[in-house]
Structures are given as C-alpha cells and as structure tokens.
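Narrative of accomplishments. A recurring question from our advisory board has been how the design workflow behaves on a single, concrete structure rather than in aggregate. To address it, we present the structure tokens for one chain from the evaluation set, followed by the sequence designed for it. No filtering or post-editing was applied between the two.
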C-alpha cells in the first residue's frame, strides 16, 4: 500500500506550538535555524521515501552541514529525483521511527523579488524542460478550469501583471482554514469550495497560470514569521509556487500575497504529489510533527 503523507494538512501539526520570531527589518543578511521532528508509528517494517532536505539550489547557503537522522538509527540513502530534489530511502522498523532534521542557513534577508517587467514567453520559445509545467497534473486539472481562467484573466496584461492578477484572485477567493484540509482536494475543488490550506492556494494558482499558458510549478519549503507579525498557529512547512517569465522562475505566494523574508526551498514539482514530505509503502500513523524556522539573532 502506497501512502503519501503531507503534514501541511495534518491534524497533528496543529497540536504543536511554534517558537515565535520577532518582527525584523527587511534587507538585513541573517542566519536562519531550521529543522523538524516527525514521528510515525509502524506495525511492521515499512519502506519509506522522504523529501525533507533543503533543496540543492540553497546548498551553498548552509553553514556547516545539514543533518538528517532518525531514532532508532537506520540507514538513509539519499538520491536526486527527476525534478532535482534530494530524497532519502529508508525502512522504518516495526514500532515506528522518529525523523530529525537540523540546519543553519545564510539568507539575504531580502523579501521575494518583484519583477514588474517580466514577460510571458510564447510557447514556441519555452525550453523543452519547462513545457511540463503547462500540462495538467494530479491536483491541477487545467482541462476543467481553462474556460474559467480565460473568462477571468483574458483582459489582463500578459506577464507579471497577469500572474499578479491570478495571485490576487486566488488570495481573495479562498479562506484559509486548517479544518478544511483534504489531501485529495484538487484545484477545481478548491475553486468551488473556496476554502483550504496553503497547498490549495498554490494548486489553484498554478492551474490558472497554466490555463493562461504560463508555466507554473509547486514549491514546498520553510517559511517562518520573519519580518511579519508572529502567527499564533502551529509552525508547519509551507507551500507556494513559481512561474516562468523572461527565462527564469519567479516566486509567488497566493496565501500571503505579499513578499516575504526567509523562504528556504526544499522541493519543486508539478504539484504536491511530486514533493510529498514522506511516502510510505505500507501503513504508518503520524504521531508527532514539529517544525521550526527562526532567525538566529546576534548577541
């Protein structure tokens, strides 16, 4: 039995309180301490794939070495998946396993970049490896939302203004609600129900962009309360998305809809199915879920 577990939507994640980070000015280079503690119960030895490492694109920013380990201690073999993400293979022993992660990361302290002049490229000029991000995927049914997308956004200016219009629409259309988390909910379901969690905001935005012939991909990573008022809700991994304009990928976040400080990328893919934090090949139960991402303040 294949079981994909995404603690972004888990009930367990809401039971753990986060460490609150004070509001800080933007643009200041900083160090961010990130990590996690995740426990699964398993009735029998169970093979697992984990995607809990920081993305290779941020490898140069890691101070020292990123640590991923488990209790009980089991071998973890790391590899790169087809999207370039770092994954680990292990077997959880009977009784269960606790996974730990810890890293110190340099960050510019600058908020997400804004490129108002970034242009939408004609499909015939897109790189071959980008075409994948125009296609429908498990949670992003472009065939069911294309007519709606063109009705809503056909009058917007192509490029950055169109993406921002989509981002604004999704931000205003969906009410954030952990109680409405559903790992099987697709972009169409999000559009119709108008509620969801961060992955749902991202899935709908990704789908609407693809419908308008703008390549878009799903992103997961750390995003702490740095540079913003602290959120009293439990800390979790975060889901946002990127669009391909003017020959590069640009960050957008439909849930928050404002530039944020301190994003630390973990994985990218067509949608959340490609960046599941853990995938088990057998039955496991999530018992503990703790995530932290906090600025390290100089004394």
């Amino acid at each position: 039995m294949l079981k994909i577990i995404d603690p972004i939507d888990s009930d367990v994640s809401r039971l753990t309180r986060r460490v609150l980070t004070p509001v800080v000015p933007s643009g200041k280079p900083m160090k961010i301490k990130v990590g996690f503690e995740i426990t699964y119960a398993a009735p029998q030895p169970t093979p697992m794939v984990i995607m809990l490492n920081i993305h290779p694109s941020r490898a140069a920013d890691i101070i020292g070495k990123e640590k991923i380990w488990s209790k009980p201690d089991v071998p973890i073999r790391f590899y790169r998946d087809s999207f370039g993400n770092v994954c680990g293979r292990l077997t959880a022993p009977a009784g269960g396993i606790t996974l730990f992660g810890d890293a110190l990361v340099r960050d510019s302290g600058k908020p997400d970049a804004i490129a108002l002049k970034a242009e939408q490229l004609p499909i015939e000029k897109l790189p071959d490896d980008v075409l994948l991000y125009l296609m429908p995927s498990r949670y992003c049914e472009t065939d069911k939302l294309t007519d709606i997308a063109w009705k809503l956004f056909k009058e917007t200016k192509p490029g950055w203004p169109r993406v921002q219009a989509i981002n604004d629409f999704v931000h205003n259309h969906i009410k954030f609600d952990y109680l409405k988390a559903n790992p099987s909910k697709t972009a169409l379901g999000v559009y119709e129900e108008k509620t969801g969690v961060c992955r749902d905001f991202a899935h709908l935005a990704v789908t609407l962009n693809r419908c308008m012939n703008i390549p878009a991909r799903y992103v997961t990573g750390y995003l702490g309360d740095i540079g913003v008022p602290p959120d009293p809700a439990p800390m979790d991994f975060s889901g946002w998305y990127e669009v391909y304009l003017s020959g590069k990928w640009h960050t957008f976040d439909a849930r928050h809809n404002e530039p944020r400080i301190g994003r630390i990328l973990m994985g990218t893919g067509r949608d959340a199915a490609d960046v599941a934090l853990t995938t088990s090949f057998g039955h496991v139960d999530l018992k503990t879920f703790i995530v932290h991402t906090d600025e390290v303040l100089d004394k």
